[in-house]
Design goal:
- This protein has 304 residues and is α+β, with helices and mostly antiparallel strands.
- The protein has a domain of 201 residues: Beta Polymerase, domain 2 (2-Layer Sandwich).
- Helix content is 42%, strand content 18%.
- It has ten helices and ten strands.
- Strands 1, 2, 3, 4, 5, 6, 7 and 10 form an eight-stranded mixed sheet that branches. A two-stranded antiparallel ribbon has the order 8-9.
- A hairpin with a 2-residue loop joins β8 and β9.
- α3 packs across α10 and α5 packs antiparallel against α7.
Length: 304
Amino acid sequence: MSLKSAIEMMDASREGLVTVTDEDIKRLHGIYLEFLKDLDDFLTANGLSYALGGGSMLGAVRHKGFIPWDDDLDITMTREDFDKFAGIADTFMPGKYYLKKPGDEGYLFHWPKLFIKGIVFDELLSAPDSPRELFVDIFIVEDAPDKKFQRKIRGYKSSLYLLACSSTRVRRCRSKLASHITHSPEVQKEIRRRSAIGFFFGFKSLEKWCIGADKYFSSYKNPSSADVVIPSGALHFWGEIYPREVLTLTRRVPFENITVSIPLYAEKYLEKRYGPSYMNVPPEGKRAKHSLLELSFGEGEDGL
């Protein structure tokens, strides 16, 4: 289990962290829904495509909307569409949203995120200069080599970049993590292990590792390759390889009270990502949630 997953599954209340309530989830879903409508309109107007990803895609298929306990939102974009979007992101309702990319000062991740202004969503894996607002993860779909040897090299190097990014991130945040996680020995052990690994990658800053990873992930170009990959995904390079048509073609589906895009063959993705029983609702003890230092909706009923 990754450190991120371990933190999501630990008992937040025992650590004195913010426990996201059912009422909080409802408010977050309302904010995400408004965001999705805004993004969908903006991307459509600019001839760009996206699809819900991860648990958000699962929610669309299994629940026809949000997973009831899910407190985040994931989308996927092809590298071509993301790069075009990044070039015009500052025109995407700048009073409400802003984009952060790998390499941005104070930004700790090797994948981009769109932040929603005015909603404090302060995670444990953050630094004093990190954004503290609610966010939407963007996972970029890259071309994957068809040749086995070339794919193997890219897989190993991508994995090395992921290790460098995750371990230097934990090392950067280790004081904050240690001060807030005192009753979860397995999580503490993983923090110490990751931080020790991060020491050996300390000859570069976290921001440089992240931008290096992003540049490497995007460096292979072959729009006719049979497969695509999401190197920054939860299952990393080897677990995130799919036939091209599974992730690059989309279909429109109902999602709560709006219509959104998901992959045309979403069910094939979900079976690989979550297993053949993905339509079964998991027991409460296996439902992941963020562990937060602060959640605040700001002014107004929905925080906007």
